[in-house]
């Protein structure tokens, strides 16, 4: 799937620079293992399962970074269709509206356009995964106690990108010939977050029928 995504989407339009794993590290080896499983054609429900003897936090960290890269690539390529004019509100249809909140500029949930929301989201995730106190890369440095809680928040917000893209820009996905690849990426994401109960089931309601 990784190769297919690069063939379908324009890698020069990545919304944010790709986060890479350091060769020679345990996380890099886990990433290679995960990619090999994806390319082998195994059932995605099997691919997301924690390999025997591996750390669950390392496994989650690898996937959070990989999903950030993939979703970043998908949205970056189709961002020309998601504008202030076409998407003045970050939403998933008429029923769901997503407001932005962080610990600095937006301390209360704030209504933003979809492009603004995406910019804030990708900057926020990039800041977190580059923070050694949250995503440690040095051998022997433990993950913080709130690590999975932080990952839940990241993945919940990344899920909202899928919601917006599917509901508001599905025609563009089809026109790019990218439907199968976006669907595969979404299913991989969905099975992963369900395998480790990383997103509240209520957040999944906008796309509840999608995995089928």
UniProtKB/TrEMBL annotation:
Domain of life: Eukaryota
Keyword check for Kinase: yes
SMART domains per record: Mob1_phocein
Pfam families given in the database record: Mob1_phocein
Keywords, sorted A to Z: Kinase, Metal-binding, Transferase, Zinc
Binding site for Zn(2+): 82, 87, 164, 169
Gene Ontology MF terms: kinase activity
Signal sequence coordinates: none
PANTHER family linked to this entry: MPS ONE BINDER KINASE ACTIVATOR-LIKE MOB
Official protein name in the record: MOB3C kinase
Taxonomic source organism: Galbula dea
